[in-house]
Q: What sequence folds into this?
């Protein structure tokens, strides 16, 4: 369980890192353990 944020600024500062972890590193059961970003074609702009 996480700790509560002490301010709105603290929460806003933490959000981008949390979103990156959630979307790129945390496996999801609906995706057979893969992160959501694995389902987005050309997410990193590698294909032209």
A:
């Amino acid at each position: 369980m996480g700790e509560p944020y002490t301010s709105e600024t603290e929460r806003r500062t933490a959000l981008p890192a949390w979103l990156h972890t959630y979307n790129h590193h945390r496996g999801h059961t609906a995706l057979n353990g893969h992160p959501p970003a694995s389902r987005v074609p050309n997410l990193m702009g590698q294909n032209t």
Q: What stands out?
A: The two ends are 42 Å apart (CA to CA).
